[in-house]
Each structure stands twice: as structure tokens, then as C-alpha cells.
Write a structure and sequence with these properties.
Length: about 525
């Protein structure tokens, strides 16, 4: 615990499971058990009347009350509402995440006392909108979010701590390069890092926010369901509770297959029952394409970092799904190295987050930082501009992906028409040249321009991108006083009022559940306000 009695707490808010750690008096990260006595808490919410039950109980209810259970909300961050109404009500995905965080906070407080300040982790591949949504979930759960850090970076910090890189002697160690392969329950991330003394530098990052252990489970579910259908011409997946029960059986079987060569999975539906035997070989065949996707991304990331396998000192395994033997086998073949599984795959991310929280709290007290973390951006950031030649809208990139953060980038555009009264700058995130294929982040409007402004007047757009993946935008118009900062109107996140209402509701200080609307305000199209490149 730190001197001013603010504990340094880190939270790994996972798609399927979450974990909390704090730094004890001796400076070591310790995972806090939940009220049920477990190190990890299922990120699952069951609604019973006005009550939100989180964790193991909610996970069990998937087999009996599937319609009332929300799982994998992390995958839907960035959408207005969670795909399924619960007890007829709609929820923003970040509010569901906040219910999970609230339980983690209450359980942790029983052991370390009340606390507010936390670091929460996100997949490195999360875009700006999802990062903001995670920060908002923290706020709604009553936290003050000190920082959002990337899961692989957190894992590398925990690993560095474990290996003694973070003490004084560590600083004289030769630089090390590592690849963090993180396959969790719902997301996949790969990050190439360099540890130089007490500096943790990300060199390149990539991933897939729709690929994780859950997808491996579903392959087993589909296989067993098809075997069942062959015998009984009935699809057990059509009933939500049966499908929920079957998924739980399959997730369990998948874990067994990490230790044993075969497993048998039972399935019963409408008074018919069957047992299906699955070997590890069969499971690996059913999921080969999923593993191949991670392999492809891993190779690409190494290339983006400008490295070869020989340049790496080690490959670090993180995330519960790396317990599947096929993951280590694939990486061994690819890298010619034995993958390092020395960090506790379920706890490393929370430990790293707690260490990072400790660093921030120390810095806030004016102490020299013991560790320096440098990140790269995982997606390119640009603005929508009209291509002067083709008159087509294009994504004009200001900050290409894998740029070291923090960074400031500028690019000059031009007004399209003479006497243009306003300028609309639409900010997008993504690699595609077509704006429609990118994620809209927000927009800035510069209004009341001088009436006689000629066409082709230069407009400078400047992006300042912070290390935590948050963005500030400046727009200035040549020859005028117009300089705009910050006014980033967000299109797909909750307003401050909505956040406050949810915070009161989740913390039990307001009985009424906030209104949820899922009507997006469509982005204003350019018209007279557009800019050309
Ligand atoms: P995480 O989000 O890192 O806690 O990862 C959770 C995922 O790891 C879930 O999809 C689990 O099913 C999976 N998992 C945990 N233990 C094992 C295991 N022994 N074998 C295979 N997958 C596992």
C-alpha cells in the first residue's frame, strides 16, 4: 500500500473473465480473490428483477435463464446498445462492463478497504472509441481511472517484474526484444516490445477484437450439435438454455483437452441424449483456421516491427487460451524458441496494471518513475477529405498505425469553395482509403469564416495523440483568427449526463434505470463544409 494509503490497483477487464490485483506493502503484485474465493470472476451479468448478479452465479444461469444473461459485452463496446435486450431492457455495453467492475470493486474493498483509483487494461488493438467506452465503464462503476493501458504491455511489465528487470540491477541489463502473444476469451492481441533497462517500448501491435477462446468453444458446440442432429434430426442450439448448457460443457471439455488426449461431451435435448467423443486432434482440426489467423497476424506484426524471429529474445504467452497446447506448438515451430509461459497467464495482466498504477501514484507524489512505458497506436488516424482529382471522399491519414506515442502530426488541406462559411473535419480511425470502412471518432466544425475567404485557402489540421490512446484535434485556417481545439463531438459514446445517471444507478443511489436510445446521430455530410486534399 502506498504512503497516502491509496492502494495501487489494476484491473484486467476481460471478455470472459476479469481479475483485480494490488501492490502489497512489500511492493509485490497480489491477485485479490472475489467474494466466492476465486482469483478470476466471470465477466457475466444476470438480471433478476432490479438486481444485477455478476460472476459465477450469472455464468451458471446461462444454462437455465439464458435470456436474462449478458456475456461478452466487451466485444460490443463501441455499439450503442448490447445486442440482446435483458428483461425487455436495453443496455449500453459499457454499462454492462460497469456492473462487472462494480462487483470487482466491492469484493476488492472487503480486503483492502475502499478505494477509487485504478488502472484498467484494454487489448492493444482496441480503437479510440472502445478505449473511451472502457474509461466510461470505470467511471460508471464509481472509479477514478488513472490510466488505460494495453494488456500486452501490462503483461510485459509483470514479466519484467518477475524476472527482476525492474530493480536497480535490472537497468544495466542488455536490451531485450519480446513478442507478447495474448489469446484471451474474446480477443487476440500480438505486440512486439523492447525492454531497455526500465523502459518498456512497444514497437508494433496488431490483433483481432473478434477472436478468442469463445470462438474455439463455438466450434465444439457446432460439432456436437451436428452429431446430435445426425442422430435425432433436432438442433439443440435452437433452445437458448440448451445452447447455454452445451456451451458450458464444451468450454469445460476444451480445458480438459489442454491436459488430456480426449474428452466426451454430453448433450441432451427434448428427452434425447447423446455423448460425443472428441480427441485433441479432432479439436485442433476443427479450430485450425482460427489458429492460422493468429499465426498470420503474428508474422505481420513482427514484420511491421522490422524484426525477424532471430532478433527476438523470447515469446511471451498471455491469456487463458494459450493453455491450448497447439498455441505453443505453432509458436515453437514459427520462432524456433520455446515460448515463455512463466507469468501466470490469467493474472499477469492485472499484476502489470497494478504495477503501472503504483508507478502513476508514485509519480503523482513527485517520485521519479521506476518504469517508463512507451506505446504505439494500433490504428491509423485521419480525416475525411475530398480528393481534388476524383472528387471522391478519402481517408487522409495523419498518424499511420504503429507510430510511437505521444505524437503530434499535422497536414494541410484546402477549402473547397470560395466564400465557404464553415469547415467540417470528420476524424476517422482505420486503414482503408474509403471513409465508410473506417470507424468514425468524431468531428470538429469551424464556423463563421470570413465571407470573402477564397477557395483553396489552406487549413491546417493538427492531431495530438496521447500515450493512453486519447486524441486532441486542432484546426486552424490560414489568414484568419480561427483556431479550434478540442471540440471533438463524439458520435458513438454516452454523454456526461448519461454517464452520471448510470453511475448513480449502478452504485445503487438512484432506483430509476436511465433511458437508453439507440438512434445514432448520423454524421453531417460535408456539403459546403468539406475540405480537399
Ligand atoms: P482470459 O480472458 O485471458 O482469462 O482467458 C479466458 C479464456 O481462456 C477462456 O476462453 C477460457 O475458456 C480459456 N481457457 C482457460 N483455461 C484454459 C485451458 N486450460 N485450456 C484452454 N483454454 C482455456
Amino acid at each position: 500500500m502506498t504512503e497516502d494509503n491509496t492502494p495501487a490497483v489494476g484491473i484486467d477487464l476481460g471478455t470472459t473473465y476479469s481479475a483485480v490485483a494490488y501492490i502489497d506493502d512489500t511492493g509485490r503484485p497480489i491477485t485479490l480473490v472475489n467474494a466466492e474465493g476465486d482469483l478470476v470472476t466471470p465477466s457475466v451479468v444476470l438480471f433478476e428483477g432490479d438486481l444485477a448478479v455478476v460472476g459465477k452465479e450469472a455464468l451458471k444461469a446461462i444454462a437455465t435463464e439464458a435470456e436474462h444473461v449478458a456475456q461478452c459485452a466487451k466485444r460490443e463496446l463501441g455499439d450503442r446498445t448490447f445486442h440482446k435486450p435483458l428483461l425487455g431492457r436495453k443496455y449500453p455495453p459499457e454499462a454492462l462492463q460497469a456492473f462487472v467492475l462494480n462487483k470487482l470493486r466491492q469484493d476488492a474493498a472487503r480486503q483492502i478497504g475502499d478505494f477509487k483509483k485504478v488502472v484498467i487494461t484494454v487489448p492493444a488493438y482496441f480503437d479510440e472509441v472502445r478505449r473511451k467506452a472502457t474509461q466510461d465503464a470505470g467511471y460508471m462503476a464509481g472509479f477514478e481511472v488513472l490510466d488505460i493501458i494495453n494488456e500486452p504491455t501490462a503483461a510485459a511489465i509483470a514479466h519484467g517484474f518477475l524476472k527482476g528487470f525492474l530493480n536497480k540491477q535490472g537497468e544495466s541489463n542488455a536490451p531485450r526484444k519480446l513478442l507478447v502473444y495474448d489469446l484471451g476469451g474474446g480477443t487476440f492481441d500480438v505486440t512486439v516490445m523492447e525492454i531497455r533497462g526500465n523502459e518498456f517500448l512497444a514497437l508494433a501491435t496488431d490483433g483481432d477484437v473478434q477472436l478468442g477462446g469463445q470462438d474455439f468453444d463455438m466450434r465444439l458446440v457446432d460439432y456436437v450439435a451436428q452429431e446430435f442432429m445426425r442422430t435425432y434430426q433436432l438442433d439443440p442450439r435452437e433452445d437458448p438454455n440448451t445452447a447455454g448448457r452445451l456451451w458450458r460443457e464444451c468450454e469445460d471439455a476444451k480445458r480438459t483437452l489442454s491436459a488430456r488426449a480426449k474428452v466426451s461431451i454430453s448433450c441432451d435435448y427434448k428427452s434425447q441424449a447423446t455423448r460425443v467423443e472428441v480427441t485433441r486432434e479432432k479439436f485442433e482440426e476443427l479450430t485450425q483456421d482460427l489458429l492460422n489467423r493468429t499465426q498470420f497476424t503474428t508474422k505481420q506484426t513482427l514484420q511491421a516491427a522490422g524484426l525477424t524471429w532471430n532478433d527476438l529474445d523470447y515469446v511471451l504467452l498471455v491469456g487463458g487460451s494459450t493453455r491450448m497446447p497447439m498455441v505453443a506448438k505453432m509458436l515453437r515451430q514459427l520462432s524456433g524458441k520455446e515460448p515463455d509461459a512463466s507469468v501466470a497467464v490469467d493474472e499477469a495482466v492485472a499484476h502489470g496494471a497494478a504495477l503501472h498504477a503504483g508507478i502513476i501514484l508514485a509519480r503523482n507524489r513527485g517520485e521519479a518513475p521506476s518504469v517508463v512505458v512507451r506505446n504505439v497506436n494500433s490504428h491509423s488516424l485521419g480525416v475525411v477529405a475530398t480528393d481534388a482529382r476524383t472528387q471522391r471522399k478519402r481517408n487522409a491519414i495523419l498518424i499511420p498505425r504503429n507510430t510511437a506515442l505521444p505524437v503530434t502530426a499535422r497536414r494541410v488541406f484546402r477549402t473547397q469553395n470560395a466564400g465557404q462559411q464553415s469547415i467540417l473535419v470528420r476524424i476517422v480511425e482505420g486503414e482503408s482509403a474509403t471513409p465508410a470502412d473506417c470507424t468514425p471518432i468524431g468531428r470538429c466544425v469551424v464556423r463563421d469564416l470570413p465571407r470573402d475567404l477564397p477557395a483553396q485557402t489552406p487549413i491546417e489540421v493538427r492531431f495530438s495523440y496521447q500515450e493512453n490512446g486519447r486524441l486532441t484535434v486542432h484546426v486552424s485556417v490560414a489568414g484568419t483568427q480561427h483556431e479550434l481545439k478540442h471540440e471533438l463531438a463524439r458520435d458513438n459514446t454516452l454523454t456526461q449526463e448519461q454517464l452520471d445517471a448510470w453511475r448513480l444507478y449502478i452504485l445503487g443511489q438512484q432506483a430509476e434505470q436511465p433511458e437508453v436510445t439507440d438512434d445514432y446521430k448520423p454524421m453531417e455530410e460535408g456539403g459546403s463544409g468539406s475540405i480537399t486534399m
